[in-house]
# Entry
Amino acid sequence: MRKLLRIGIAGCGAIGSSLAKSVAADFTGKAELTGLFDVETEKAYSLANKLGLKIAVLNLEELINKADLVIEASKVASSYDIARSALSFSKDIMIMSVGGLIEHYNELKALAEEKRARVYIPSGAICGIDGLKAAKCSGIKSVTLTTRKPPKAFLGVAYVLKKKIKLDDIKEDTLIFEGNASQATRAFPQNINVAATLSLAGIGPENTIVRIVASPSVTRNVHEIEVESDAGRIVCRSENEIHPENPKTSYLAVLSAIGTLRQILEPVKIGT
Ligand SMILES: NC(=O)c1ccc[n+]([C@@H]2O[C@H](COP(=O)([O-])OP(=O)(O)OC[C@H]3O[C@@H](n4cnc5c(N)ncnc54)[C@H](O)[C@@H]3O)[C@@H](O)[C@H]2O)c1
# Structure
């Protein structure tokens, strides 16, 4: 009989909770939840209670020790440290706060190779990573991400305040930012994961173009990626519903992590 994949979750907010529920309900016989960790310990206890299972609430080191795969769903400022700790103990890691990897990607990759462990980065809130990865095997000329959100989604964003953009006056699609992914992640931290995943999968943060549009006509967060390559042109658009427990998180991002987990556990892997 195959050994159960032991999973530890670091970060018990919207994504961590959904993943924990899914591991407990959908992966019986294939995976087991061996621990929960959150800097706000009460969140980990509350999740364990909701699950109705005797799941251990642990510190990070214990979590890593008891897991084969650690799933990080905490925050951008912590993801690198969590990933490095897991890899140092030769444990696999799935990372949701991808923005925290931009500066450390090569270092983590080298550590994963040295420790013979794997780093999983789900597509998250965007589609088209499969085509981008295939196109990368030939030559990519450009990668552009265009994100459209309702103007009120940008309320309080430091960049918008600094540029004195009057969100209330926006009556039609308005381009409020255009730059590379590095600049975009500094100006719009809430867009950081999507831009980071796209640039790490493609041609890097300095060369990936990001456009941010305040659009009064959209009710969902819309991400469009456009890739020009030797293999042709790829255009992908996702119109995302928000997660019921966190309006800053797309529901698709959670499902993408569950889909990645499924792919890890299935003998057949479909898609690039
Ligand atoms: N890859 C994507 O496309 C994508 C999409 C949406 C969100 N995200 C990212 O995933 C992460 C989780 O999102 P969420 O919606 O669940 O957020 P959330 O705010 O609902 O939950 C985050 C949880 O992590 C905990 N936490 C914070 N720092 C921690 C640390 N150092 N160690 C352990 N726990 C810590 C918090 O207490 C909180 O319970 C965020 O970083 C978010 O930016 C990624």
Q: What stands out?
A: The chain has a mean pLDDT of 94.
